[in-house]
Amino acid sequence: MYGEPIEALNNALSGMINVLRTDPQALDSLWLSIITYDREVKELVPLTELVSFQLPQVVCPQSGPTHTGQALQMLHDLVGKQVVKGNATQKGDWRPLLFLFTDGKPSDLQLYRDMIPKIKSLNFGAIVACAAGPSADDKLLKELTDTVVHLDTADAATLRQFFRWVSETIEQGNKSMGTVDTVSLPEPPGELHLVI
Predict the structure, then answer these.
(1) Looking at per-residue confidence, does 91 or 75 come out higher?
(2) Smallest Cα–Cα separation from 75: which of 29, 131, 30, 120?
(3) Per-residue 3-state assignment (H helix, E strand, C coil) for 100-120
(4) In this predicted model, what pLDDT tens digit does every residue of 144-186 receive, in sequence order?
(5) Which of 34, 40, 41, 79 has the fewest CB atoms within 10 Å, measured from its CB?
(6) How many whole angstroms separate alpha carbon 29 and alpha carbon 93?
(7) CA dist., res. 27 & res. 11, Å (int)
(8) Which domains does the chain have, with CATH numbers?
(9) Nearest-CA neighbor of 76 among 49, 30, 116, 25?
(10) DSSP assignment, residue 183?
(11) Helices (H), 121-188
(12) Average pLDDT over residues 30-44
């Protein structure tokens, strides 16, 4: 994602954060983190409560590998350190939601496949993968999760619809967690194609 698509992504992320900030329950309980992955894997924003969350500009190189496996490895380590598990003596965090967004396919395919069972063992409330554009590989994402949406384009309107749907999913998960085991995803808008 370079040029107009990355600008559209930044604008859509900003819109999603603004929508979430209008939900009092999200302001009170939601924490967000962003990990970017291309030739480098970076925790762009550490786990931060919504009220303090500052969205940086996401940048992308013009070309290079897509280290999805390394990103999942970092995510696995961070969730293990940061998400508080509940037990008989302490209340834990609600189950996190994972949204994976890519316009390509894993360059580190073996590590990606090695990390899939480890990520699934973390018991996310939902794992949603988004394949954006013609180069994104739905089949590889389906190995990680049954919930894969495909965007034919990564233009501003489509990304805005996708992140509006993500914010609805987060809000729904935020309202239902603690009462259900998994988050029921809202129906995606027409621009998003659910991959069966």
Answers:
(1) 75
(2) 120
(3) EEECCCCCCHHHHHHHHHHHH
(4) 999 898 888 777 788 888 888 888 888 776 554 444 566 667 6
(5) 40
(6) 10
(7) 20
(8) 4-195 (3.40.50.410)
(9) 116
(10) P
(11) 138-144, 156-176
(12) 93
